[in-house]
Amino acid sequence: MEITTRQKKDITIVTVKGRIDGVTAPEFENYLSELISQGRRNFIINCDGLEYISSAGLRSILIIAKKLKTEQGNIYFSGLKDAVEEVFKISGFYSLFKIYDSDASALNSI
Fold first, then answer.
1. What is the pTM of this model?
2. How many domains, in total, are found in the chain?
3. Which residue, 17, 94, 109, 93, is CA-closest to 55?
């Protein structure tokens, strides 16, 4: 898994490539937790390069979302494709989170 970030005003765009599974989910969660501890509150998670997400990855997302809620923050998703999009639909994440086609459409809506 590869994680990169960039800042657009008060939104942190986190791009994730590869897989978020039982092995990499703790790294993903720790990475975002560190950003939250630095005072960042609004995130777009760009999943354009995400090939796979397991239940451990979904659990990490829920943990991060809960932390953000207590800090009056938000998490949005962009670029879901194929298997990852299907997992989000089956798991009900489409009803829990705002999901956009691209970072640009997310930024325009936020």
1. 0.93
2. 1
3. 93
